[in-house]
Amino acid sequence: MAHHFITGVAGFIGSQLADRLLAEGHFVSGVDDFSLGTEGHLASARKESRFHFVEADVSNPDAAKDSFARAVQAHGVVDFVWHLAANSDILAGVADLTVDFKRTLGTTYGTLEAAREVGVRRIAFASTSAVYGEREDILEEESGPLLPISNYGATKLASEALLSAAVESFLENVWIFRFPNVIGPRATHGAIYDFVKRLTAYPGTLRVLGDGTQCKPYLHVSELMDAMQFIVAHTTDRRNVFNIGPRGEGTFVRFLAEQSIARVAPGTSIAYTGGDRGWVGDVPRFSYSTKKLKRLGWTPRITSDEAAIRAIDEMACEQGL
Ligand SMILES: NC(=O)c1ccc[n+]([C@@H]2O[C@H](COP(=O)([O-])OP(=O)(O)OC[C@H]3O[C@@H](n4cnc5c(N)ncnc54)[C@H](O)[C@@H]3O)[C@@H](O)[C@H]2O)c1
């Protein structure tokens, strides 16, 4: 059994990953500053003696080093780091560059400094389709030039670069996973999250950013974790870059709104704000190639639409519906 360290462990994906690794019998340590994650997400992990948590801001290298040192004290050498801490509120980063500079790039810097200090050799990183910017072609790992259109995408790309460079100095392997939209229980943000919450609180009219024709791939968090674990188990390159996506094409925002209404508040009308995108820095349409992942031997089981319907139901259940 290995000792895994997760940054952003109280977030949506981090807490799901912690629960999965603990269920597999691993030791799990994690850090979070609760800027976006919640204590409630740690409820099941907290029951395990193999779980160790430190509340700290990993963009501060001293705090990051302290959290890693405490993890080593608790469970011994850290075998693997999952670096998930970031600003996931993309709109907040549009308004203020310091948000992504600190929380998305700064957390990578702090994590790398701490990882070096305690002798970590392997890191997986949660990157994003946003590093590709707005492109007409199907996004492949080799697509370029990479010209992000949001501060979030820009600082994720800068993080990728820092991780790549660290392979030359102290890391043996790095995995860069470019996620599309990830959905499922415990989500802390995103269109489905907003729709379900707003429909629960204010049924009647649902305000939807853009004209509903935005179309992106949505991946269920369970499939994301399957894919990440599969890739780590089946790759040994020093730098491993993979898109992870659902089966088939993406899902229209209009579909998300209609399905959310059908599940949460039937009869609600939709008010589109208009325009081809939801906000500044939004990439309204993209298609993801997951051929590289298929060649490695992993295929997603469900489509983006199926993942959306499942996640809407799960999130409605979380609201007690
Ligand atoms: N969910 C998605 O659709 C999606 C898509 C692409 C990439 N990602 C990436 O995956 C990762 C996890 O995303 P998520 O959806 O679980 O988001 P999330 O916001 O739920 O989780 C991120 C966690 O990081 C924590 N955090 C932020 N700044 C921190 C800091 N300075 N120190 C310590 N903790 C800090 C937050 O409190 C939060 O718990 C993020 O890096 C995100 O950018 C997510």
Structural features, described:
The chain has 321 residues and is an alpha/beta fold. It folds into 2 domains: 3-179, 3-Layer(aba) Sandwich (Rossmann fold); 188-217 and 248-286 and 304-318, UDP-galactose 4-epimerase, domain 1. Helix content is 42%, strand content 18%. The protein has 11 helices and 13 strands. The protein has helices spanning 12-23, 43-46, 61-75, 90-95, 97-118, 151-169, 191-201, 221-234, 253-264, 291-296, 304-318; strands spanning 3-7, 27-32, 51-55, 80-83, 122-128, 173-179, 181-183, 205-208, 215-216, 218-220, 239-243, 251-252, 269-272. A 7-stranded parallel sheet has the order 3-2-1-4-5-6-11, with helices on both faces. Helix 2 links the parallel strand 2 (27-32) and strand 3 (51-55). Helix 7 runs parallel beside helix 9 (253-264). It is globular, with a radius of gyration of 19 Å. The mean pLDDT is 96. The site of nicotinamide-adenine-dinucleotide has 29 residues, from helix 1, strand 2, helix 5, strand 5 and strand 7.
Could you give a quick summary of the protein structure above?
Helix content is 42%, strand content 18%. By secondary structure, it is an alpha/beta fold. Nicotinamide-adenine-dinucleotide binds next to helix 1, strand 2, helix 5, strand 5 and strand 7.
